[in-house]
């Protein structure tokens, strides 16, 4: 087996993917590449999500695989407890709870962003597409609950010219009451390969040479594309 | 001074560190009343301007025009203050849902506006059904685990609790060694604390 991504053998997949190599060789065979196991990928995805100001595309397949792996490992705990001593078992359980934490933290981070920028996400098809089906349901229902609350307390008591939740007044140009993520904020990013000379603004005044493992603090807006193409990671 | 009550309302949020206070109905309604007054003034001036100048074009900046503008801006400001107040409180209510679970203690519920209670209920349902569809309880495992087990001290008498596959009696001041996932909800409810002795 080359890496944790294949699923030749589900059980082997589960143990390999957690990346805890030492000691586990008793029941898993083959080598694996630490950088590309599902849990390692999830860790990166979670870090990116945490550091990026806007919401990133949902990693549906990855999340599904990791979730299955966790369930599988939990099921196997009882069986393993017969063959290994308590210390090994506790390490094994530790591994499960760490993976579970990563998974939950990832979903929590996303929900937080969805709540914060919900109106902006709903009106922008590009961002809306980045949500999982469940998250879309969540966002929609959240907006409904929030606007109902706002209407009950304030908006329904205002005159029609002022009763919108997204506009200050009828006469406002555009929707001026919606919170948007600040894409010009700075992020720490590390390049995953040699990107070469990269322009940071449209006019080409500023550019940066991105080499492997370089660490930079850059504005988020210009490097968005690199992140989407998986050429950099945020830390 | 226009807008002062609104500012006062918002300032109330900064008094305490993320705790929820009793909903300030008096001040809230006062600001709502001010909004109505501003609206009344704006429409009165607008009608006046219309009569003077039926074409609707604003020819020059006079007292009437400035007055209408000031009332309009004060109205907007008050509206924003009210909504900020609500939104900020709503966020605190959401946080409580994560910390304390779907049912809030009676003394906290008393602090809320009826509409806030309704919002809490809807939010709780939304979060609950999301967690059911993804088949994960997101409110536990909030901190990266160091050890799957932790030592806790019981702060309030809880009684018999089912932990794992056996029942344990959690009486006040007793110290237990239990799974972190099982201890976390009790910790966030303030029934037990982590014991580092």
TrEMBL record, chain A:
<feature type="domain" description="DNA replication complex GINS protein SLD5 C-terminal">
    <location>
        <begin position="181"/>
        <end position="235"/>
    </location>
</feature>
<dbReference type="InterPro" id="IPR031633">
    <property type="entry name" value="SLD5_C"/>
</dbReference>
<dbReference type="Pfam" id="PF05916">
    <property type="entry name" value="Sld5"/>
</dbReference>
<dbReference type="Pfam" id="PF16922">
    <property type="entry name" value="SLD5_C"/>
</dbReference>
<comment type="similarity">
    <text>Belongs to the GINS4/SLD5 family.</text>
</comment>
<feature type="domain" description="GINS subunit">
    <location>
        <begin position="87"/>
        <end position="153"/>
    </location>
</feature>
<feature type="region of interest" description="Disordered">
    <location>
        <begin position="1"/>
        <end position="24"/>
    </location>
</feature>
<keyword id="KW-0235">DNA replication</keyword>
<comment type="function">
    <text>The GINS complex plays an essential role in the initiation of DNA replication.</text>
</comment>
<dbReference type="InterPro" id="IPR008591">
    <property type="entry name" value="GINS_Sld5"/>
</dbReference>
<keyword id="KW-0539">Nucleus</keyword>
<dbReference type="InterPro" id="IPR038749">
    <property type="entry name" value="Sld5_GINS_A"/>
</dbReference>
<dbReference type="InterPro" id="IPR021151">
    <property type="entry name" value="GINS_A"/>
</dbReference>
<protein>
    <recommendedName>
        <fullName>DNA replication complex GINS protein SLD5</fullName>
    </recommendedName>
</protein>
<dbReference type="InterPro" id="IPR036224">
    <property type="entry name" value="GINS_bundle-like_dom_sf"/>
</dbReference>
TrEMBL record, chain B:
<dbReference type="InterPro" id="IPR021151">
    <property type="entry name" value="GINS_A"/>
</dbReference>
<keyword id="KW-0539">Nucleus</keyword>
<dbReference type="InterPro" id="IPR036224">
    <property type="entry name" value="GINS_bundle-like_dom_sf"/>
</dbReference>
<feature type="domain" description="DNA replication complex GINS protein PSF1 C-terminal">
    <location>
        <begin position="146"/>
        <end position="195"/>
    </location>
</feature>
<dbReference type="InterPro" id="IPR056783">
    <property type="entry name" value="PSF1_C"/>
</dbReference>
<feature type="domain" description="GINS subunit">
    <location>
        <begin position="49"/>
        <end position="133"/>
    </location>
</feature>
<protein>
    <recommendedName>
        <fullName>GINS subunit domain-containing protein</fullName>
    </recommendedName>
</protein>
<comment type="similarity">
    <text>Belongs to the GINS1/PSF1 family.</text>
</comment>
<keyword id="KW-0235">DNA replication</keyword>
<dbReference type="Pfam" id="PF05916">
    <property type="entry name" value="Sld5"/>
</dbReference>
<dbReference type="InterPro" id="IPR005339">
    <property type="entry name" value="GINS_Psf1"/>
</dbReference>
<dbReference type="Pfam" id="PF24997">
    <property type="entry name" value="PSF1_C"/>
</dbReference>
